[in-house]
Amino acid sequence: MAHAHTHTPAHRTEQTNSEAVKPVSKRVAPAPAPRRARTWRLLTPWLFLLAPLALLITFTYAPIANMVAYSFTDWDGVSPELHYTGAENYTEIFTREDLFQVFWVSGYYLVASVIQIVAALYFATILSFSIRFRNFFKGVLFFPSLVNGVAIGFVFLYFFQDGGTFDTVLGLFGYHTDHAWLGTPASANVSLAGVSIWRYLGMNFVLFLGAIQSIPGELYEAAELDGAGRWHQFRYIILPGIKPVLTLTVILSVSGSLSAFEIPYIMTGGATGTETFVIQTVKLAFQFNKTGLASAAAVVLLLIILLVTWVQRRLVPDDRVDLV
Amino acid sequence: MNRRTVTILATVAGAALLLPGCTGTGGSTKGADAKAPDDPAEVSGTITVLTVRTDLVQDGTMKKYAAEFNKTYPKVKVEFQALTNYEAEIKIRMNTDDYGDVLLIPAVIKKDDYPKFFASLGTAAERGKKYRFTDFTTVDGKVYGQSPVGVMPGFVYNKRVWKEAGVTEWPTTPAEFLADLEAIKTKTDAIPYYTNFAAQWPLTSWTYVDGSVHCDPQATTKLAEDDPWAENSDLRVGDTLLYDIVKQGLAEKDPTTSNWEESKPRTAKGEIATQWLGTWAIIQFQDAAKKAGVNPDDIGFMPFPAQTDGTFCATVGPDYNQAVNVHSPHKEAARAWIDWFTDKSGYDQDNLAISPLKDAAMPEVLKPYEQAGVKLIELDDAAGAKVKLIDDESEVGIYKPEYRQDLVDLARGAKKGSLDDFLGGLGKKWTETQANVSD
């Protein structure tokens, strides 16, 4: 119990309980309160919850319920008439091959998110040790997350333009390319996935940094005394220490890759083989006025993401981490 | 997923099934009329006019029109709302009663539903005597909208560049047109043709070659009944020309990063030679020329390179149609605005556009058309609603940019396949849907 002094009171109760030592304070059953007080006690948490619950229901669950309801109709989005069509929209989604082909595009974003997580982890680890200009680099890495996604789309449109910033920068290194970056499906998707790494790296980085910094500093000291190098510190202290955050990030990245939208929508509008499932859904709803079918597609995407999350939680159970 | 999540999901799904379709705007007001006021001095009320012309609202031009309007109708107050993304924003507002007093009929509204959303402006027989384009908004003999300007598709081109390339006559066939673009490519520094691929919507104007290739006022009806990409049909001729332009390297090098706003001054300055747009674009390109300090008279306009019996043909159609909200409490005032804006505002002349009045003269910019004896036709729109329905149902999108983007990709080699297979596939989707769509 060398580190007993660092334990929070919560820890202590837990431990004492498990070790079956005499409880610190004897539990006394409270005297039955008068009925009115009891009602208030039951009601109080709900009163506090009233505002957030109202917001949550109005802006999350009611729209979802509506969307599910629309998915069983042939509504076009404006017409006063709509007909119940049963599971027809769902049948159409699962029988039309072209609707699912767009998921191949998600592959590019999946690969990108692997790169993104590794890079974010690398930077977060390095910047959690004391090095010069630490805060400056933290700012640099986090900055893209603060910029509006639409603005990023437009900026990178200029960046990838023929003779644009990217070509100029490559030219500075003596590499004169004549490549239309958004010109072919593969190159366009790689470029767009690159932009999305740039955009979301900062967010992952901050999450990792926060998790790493919550690991008690004396662990490193102890490890260093035992002769552990930077790699071993990373492998045996940092990695297990941030496992819950890492799992969360992986889940977020996978669902993010499946539902990639704003960057490809703004930059290419889904042209040249960059259409993602969400872009396709938006086009069904707002271009071809098939709100019913689009709602069904959205429900299917939601279910796919829930499924993927569930499988992931099964493969990587969320164990309690205990470094000490 | 733990048990609680399952419970929540089940609740949501259950609630969804219980929810009735709460989208109705009610049919009680169906078929209301917006009558023209008898006495202009008496009609009163504050009306909101929705428009897509953000530029005119911002620079105060719309206010000037309103002030002019108030000279005749002193008691009507006109307010403007400019929507940047009109189609998307209006679609959501149309689910309520609050979509302005005067609005532009959005493409999403089915023609049969017009009486549920808009007040009638009169019978087709009566309005047709004075105005063009009445059949585009006629349902059961009543007219629901009126466009303040007529538009005509065509090539906006830089006259100076074409002359430098040694071309003085308008090309009369697609092959000649391609040869002329080739001449521009070899003899000048200009990009012969600019697709505006990235802005997407400019590509949709290629659908409006329909009618001008074979000089057929029934072209829209043909779209509803036949394969639009059959051998030698209008759309096939148009799409093949676009394909060939890109295939032969006569378009911009990287279409995916093209820029619409930039393309205007570049065309004015002669860096770009040609674009397929419409008469509405002329004034914008001339303005761009003035801003760039070059001669606005260099901006020319030419018809599609096809002749029937030795003459060019061009179709004249309506722009957005103005209509009165059926729920508006000030229908007379709203009607007064539409009538005044169409007949007396001078909006058509200010935009160098074709007047919606049948007896009005052609704008000055179309002088070359008169000299060349271009025949102007108005397409019969009786089957227009059906065409739109087939278009949405089949997801082909002749009024949407996707298939032309695919066409350009195909021509550039960014997408595999042959033109014949591609157009054949579209035709197959289209004709298969035709059978399922009832009139």
Automatic annotation (TrEMBL), chain A:
Q: Which Gene3D superfamilies match?
A: MetI-like
Q: Which CDD domains match?
A: TM_PBP2 (cd06261)
Q: What membrane topology term does the record carry?
A: Multi-pass membrane protein
Which residue ranges traverse the bilayer?
Answer: 42-64, 108-129, 141-160, 180-201, 245-267, 292-311
Q: Where in the cell is it found?
A: Cell membrane
ABC transmembrane type-1 domain location = 106-312
Q: Name one Pfam family in it.
A: BPD_transp_1
Q: Name one GO cellular component term.
A: plasma membrane
**Superkingdom classification of source:** Bacteria
Record bears the keyword Nucleus: no
Renumbered to this chain, region (Disordered) spans 1-32
Q: Its family?
A: Belongs to the binding-protein-dependent transport system permease family.
Q: What is this protein called?
A: Sugar ABC transporter permease
From TrEMBL, chain B:
Question: What keywords are assigned to this protein?
Answer: Cell membrane, Lipoprotein, Membrane, Palmitate, Signal
* UniProt xrefs under InterPro entries: Bact_solute-bd_prot1, SBP
Keyword Oxidoreductase belongs to the record: no
- Source domain of life: Bacteria
Establish whether keyword Signal is in the entry. yes
Which Pfam families does this chain map to?
SBP_bac_1
Q: What is this protein called?
A: Carbohydrate ABC transporter substrate-binding protein
